[in-house]
């Protein structure tokens, strides 16, 4: 008896196989030539101002930033979210750009 398969059972494998075929067709080298960060001296550094916060704190900061932008520009929440996203959630950069232009 033939085993029934759900649609998409092999989707991931098929996608990977198709992508590998495309890369081979494009003559792209698929050999592992090591990591670009093999030298310890070349490892990226985390800026000193980086701070790890809990997701609840992040959600609160995002909400506060959204409300502040909404109030300053008298726009909807979705408009504030679009602006904040465009400026990588950097309110100072957003305010500087919009108030100076």
What does this structure look like?
With 101 residues, the chain is mostly helical. It has a domain at 55-100. Helix content is 53%, strand content 0%. The protein is built from four helices and no strands. It has helices at 11-25, 55-73, 77-86, 91-100. α2 (55-73) crosses α3. The longest helix has 19 residues, at 55-73. The N and C termini lie far apart (71 Å).
User: Total helix count?
Assistant: 4
What's the Cα radius of gyration?
A: 24 Å
Shape: extended
Largest sheet: none
Strand content: under 5%
- Contiguous uncertain segments of 5+ residues: none
- The N- and C-terminal alpha carbons lie at a distance of 71 Å
The number of distinct β-strands equals: 0
Specify the structural class: mainly alpha
Share in helix? 40-55%
Mean pLDDT: 75
Q: What series of H and E elements makes up the topology?
A: HHHH
Topology:
Layout: H1 11-25, H2 55-73, H3 77-86, H4 91-100
Helix pairs in contact: 2-3
List keywords for this structure.
4 helices, 101 residues, mainly alpha
Task: Summarize this structure briefly.
This protein is mainly α. The protein contains four helices and no strands.
